[in-house]
Structure formats: C-alpha cells, structure tokens
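Database export, one record per block. Field names are fixed; values are copied verbatim from the stored entry.
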Amino acid sequence: MASLIKFITYSLAPIILILFIFASNQDLLLGALIIWLIIYFYLFPWIVSLSRSHPNSLSIFALNLLLGWTLIGWVSALIWGLFRAS
C-alpha cells in the first residue's frame, strides 16, 4: 500500500506543478486532473499488480488495456492482480 501511495504522489505532483506554472485559468487544471483520475482509475488493476510485484504484470497490463473498457475485463484484471500466482 505504501508503494501505491508513493506512485500516486510521484505521478500526480509533477502534473500539478507543471499545470500551476503554465495554466492561465483553473479550467485547464481541473480538466487535466479529471483526465489523470480517469486514466488512473482505468489502469488501477495494473497499478495494483505492480505494487504487489505480480509476476504477470505485463499480461495484466495488456488485459487491462485491451479489455478494461468492458467491466468484465477490468474486474478480471483486478482479481488477477490481487492474487499472486503460485
């Protein structure tokens, strides 16, 4: 869980910093944060598998990327990422 929090912090902090420097209005900042949250939620099963050092993280990423738009693909990638292969 600590590595997941580090990932969130390290991936979000540079985006916020760059947007605060270059954003002329708050709509751009809000839009970028919403897009980041959507991408983060979509790739959440892969992030979980990376934080758990799953041996099939690349396969989970491929499943999540290709079939994550279906609820069945997203849930199956999440379940696969949560359980470590024996």
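Remark 1: The chain has a mean pLDDT of 81.
Remark 2: Residues 55 and 86 are 10 Å apart (CA to CA).
End of record.
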